[in-house]
Design goal:
With 741 residues, the protein is mainly alpha-helical. It folds into two domains: 156 residues, no CATH class; 392 residues, A middle domain of Talin 1, CATH 1.20.1420. It has 24 helices and eleven strands. The strands form five sheets. It has a three-stranded antiparallel beta sheet with strand order 3-2-4, with helices on one face. Strands 1-10 form a two-stranded parallel sheet. A two-stranded antiparallel sheet has the order 5-6. Strand 8 and strand 9 form a beta hairpin. Helix 5 runs antiparallel to helix 8 and helix 13 runs parallel beside helix 18. The radius of gyration is 33 Å and the shape is elongated. It starts with 38 loop residues before the first helix and ends in a 7-residue tail after the last helix. One of its GO terms (biological process) is intracellular calcium ion homeostasis.
């Protein structure tokens, strides 16, 4: 793909493509400073800026604008305060292949999951030098490796180098004691010095000359391969060349030395891999185990590289210069980010520990709940990757069905399992937890997700622009959805009967003031006439209208008004690059991973709901706070990461759409599905929220629409959204727990 460029680097508009339209030539000596075009040109550029920088998608941007022939003066008159209405802006995104083109197109479709990572393998020549270094093997000798005295190398010495070197010394002593293992003892002695500080050194696999394979004397022999005196292990040894002694020495090594060292290197490899920035150390240990320890000692040569030394002949097995690289957060294995790879074993531990230790003999409920919640993060990533892969390799209908079916599967799985458990135990607290989690997701995706993206993106870009028209569609749907979701609550406030649990007469006067506690609106008065005759039909009506409005929004943005996004995706290749699509996951593989991830998600959600009750009961923190933070935002972490990545590349439109799309789906899909579920499986879930949820949600939506009104933002506006979100969290933190919990 193309490099991730700044917004104004490849934009063309209006007068650049129309020779009939006069242009104001640039003047280097003007007092105005920067080069200027006509006012019409600047208005067209403003339209182009609304789209944000799409260079992070790795594409060429072509923005042709068609204007009728007009003079510069008339353009000034007609467009002094408004955008050129005759400018038809079209953005063409050139992708690497057809699959990536479909993925980019799906990112700009309302209701489709936005995915930043590639679903196909990127061509090696299109990657930056930093990324190429991440995937390179540790067998390349550089002309100048620079200084090896770095913080990462010192960290290696403190964490692994000293005890690994000591272990090699001990194994060398054991090999010398056995006598017949002396050649391997000398090898371990040399490797002890290497692994104490392997940087700037090289391990080479050499071919033993035929003249050294027979018993000949002469300490002054020289090697034609490297020159100079023959290394000590090459010098002929009659007993080592004998077949019997050679096999005996190898057997002793494989029994006494190699297993211990392989186990130590395995421990180093796993530890360094989990630390991510030390993945070069993991590669070093893995390569040492698979190559160096299995070679005969006479085939291994260890040398220190010098700045003026010519490249060595023969095969280089290991050559490492740096133990740490901070860019390894970009590392991927078969298209899967390294963080998701490292968290995958956590899912297995959670399932085994959760179902094998049901009586909580090994760990308590708090540990199991935390593990189950953390396991949801990698599973959410795999579900998102699978949805993006299937959608990119399928037609629009299949992609729409997959996104509609599995787009909210993470949240719905947890909500439904919690409602089932609450219904079985007769505990209304689970229904309140679900309502709080729904509200927390709505508020977090409206305030925290776009606000955090604005702050992080604003650090790199002074001002970011986004497509205000597409954001306006999501905002309108949010207003509609919030009004529909909280309509039954407002109805119950107006017509419900206020019931208080305890009241005290403050003035000791029967006609005086009363202080009441635990007050709520009772909808079940007179055998539930108000609820069953009025509130429940309203809930069902809203649950039908909200998905219908969602479908209308899809039809509006994907069919009749696709020009809102002004995006054209082309799978044309970049000049000089012609690559076929090599997908990371095929459709069938993605489907299998999607189903397995969904199954594991259901199991983790079941464990989370199974062990959340002691936390809610014994915790001193309000159940509101736990639900609106941990339960609401942890499943959305992969989406938050995608939004941050888009914002860093100055593509704030997609960052905003990520939060808006989740919030809209919460109100227009997830809540109606939960209401539908309660019809077939009666639970304590009713679409009547507390006052705190109503006020927090409505205020968040109003504030978001005010911030997004002008189609541009900076880090200050993002800070406002984040601070308001934290203020609401403080309110939930100090709020008393809901009734019934």
């Amino acid at each position: 793909m193309a490099s991730e460029a700044e917004p104004g680097r490849r934009r063309r508009c209006c007068t650049q493509d129309m020779p009939d339209v006069p242009k104001v030539l640039d003047s280097r000596g003007d007092s105005d400073g920067p080069r200027r075009g006509s006012l019409c040109d600047r208005h067209c550029a403003a339209i182009n800026n609304v789209q944000g920088d799409l260079g992070d998608l790795g594409c060429h941007l072509h923005r042709p604008c068609v204007l009728p022939a007009m003079s510069t003066a008339s353009c000034f008159q007609q467009h002094s305060e408004e955008v050129c209405e005759s400018c038809t802006v079209k953005t063409t995104l050139t992708a690497e292949n057809a699959v990536e083109a479909n993925k980019l197109s799906n990112n700009y479709k309302f209701g489709f999951k936005k995915w930043k990572s590639h679903v196909t393998a990127r061509p090696w020549e299109d990657r930056s030098e930093i990324v190429k270094e991440l995937y390179s093997d540790l067998n390349v000798i550089r002309g100048s490796g620079g200084s090896t005295r770095t913080c990462g190398n010192v960290l290696y010495l403190l964490l692994f180098g000293w005890w690994l070197s000591l272990l090699y010394v001990l194994v060398a002593a054991v090999m010398f004691v056995t006598v017949i293992g002396a050649p391997y003892g000398r090898l371990c002695w040399d490797l002890a010095g290497y692994f104490l500080w392997p940087f700037g050194k090289v391990i080479q696999k050499v071919e033993v000359p035929k003249s050294h394979q027979v018993c000949e004397a002469g300490a002054g022999e020289s090697s034609a391969l490297l020159g100079g005196p023959t290394p000590r292990r090459w010098r002929p040894q009659c007993w080592a060349g004998t077949g019997y002694w050679h096999h005996a020495s190898t057997a002793v090594w494989l029994c006494l030395g190699c297993p211990v060292l392989a186990l130590a290197h395995g421990l180093v490899c796993v530890t360094a891999w989990l630390l991510i920035v030390l993945i070069p150390v993991a590669k070093l240990s893995a390569r040492a185990t698979s190559r160096v320890l299995l070679l005969p000692p006479e085939r291994v040569l260890i040398r220190r590289l010098r700045m003026t030394e010519v490249p060595l002949e023969g095969e280089v097995i290991l050559c490492c210069y740096r133990a740490a690289n901070p860019y390894y957060y970009k590392y991927a294995v078969d298209g899967i980010n390294v963080f998701a790879v490292n968290l995958l074993p956590l899912v297995l531990v959670t399932l085994v520990l959760g179902y094998a230790d049901s009586p909580n003999h090994l760990t308590g409920s708090a540990v199991k709940f935390t593990l189950a919640l953390l396991s949801i993060m990698p599973l959410s990533y795999y579900i998102g990757m699978a949805i993006a892969s299937i959608s990119a390799q399928s037609n629009f209908a299949v992609g729409a069905v997959v996104n509609a079916t599995f787009g909210s599967i993470t949240e719905l799985t947890f909500y439904i399992t919690a409602l089932i458990k609450g219904s079985r135990e007769g505990n209304r607290c689970y229904a309140e937890v679900v309502k709080s989690a729904l509200t927390g997701t709505l508020v977090g995706c409206v305030l925290f997700v776009p606000g955090l993206c604005m702050v992080i993106g604003g650090i790199r870009h002074q001002e970011q622009r986004f497509n205000s028209r597409s954001a306006g569609v999501s905002s309108a749907l949010l207003f509609l959805s919030v009004g529909g979701v909280f309509a039954p609550t407002l109805f119950s406030k107006v017509y419900g009967k206020l019931v208080c649990g305890e009241c005290h007469n403050v003035t000791q006067n029967p006609l005086g003031h009363y202080l009441c506690h635990n007050c709520h609106f009772d909808l079940m008065d007179n055998n539930g006439t108000l609820y069953y005759s009025h509130v429940q039909p309203l809930v069902y009506t809203v649950s039908i209208l909200l998905p219908a409005a969602y479908l209308i929004g899809l039809f509006f943005t994907l069919k009749t008004h696709t020009h809102i996004y002004d995006i054209h995706i082309s799978d044309c290749h970049m000049p000089g690059h012609h690559h076929s699509a090599v997908v990371h996951w095929s459709r069938w593989r993605a489907l299998v991973i999607l189903l397995l991830s969904t199954l594991c998600m259901s199991a983790c959600a079941d464990l989370a709901t199974e062990h959340i009750s002691p936390i809610l009961t014994n915790s001193t923190i309000s159940q509101y706070f736990i639900s609106v933070t941990v339960l609401a935002m942890v499943p959305e972490l992969p989406e938050i990461v995608n939004g941050i990545q888009f914002a860093l590349q100055n593509n704030l439109s997609l960052s905003i759409e990520i939060g808006n799309c989740i919030a809209v789906q919460v109100c227009m899909l997830q809540i109606p599905i939960l209401v539908l579920f309660t019809i077939f499986y009666p639970t304590n879930f009713t679409l009547v929220f507390s006052d705190l949820h109503v006020y927090a949600s409505m205020f968040s939506v109003v504030l978001m629409n005010y911030i997004f009104m002008d189609g541009k933002c900076d880090y200050f506006q993002g800070t406002v959204l984040v601070m308001v979100y934290f203020i609401l969290l403080a309110v939930y933190f100090f709020a008393p727990s809901p009734s019934g919990c």
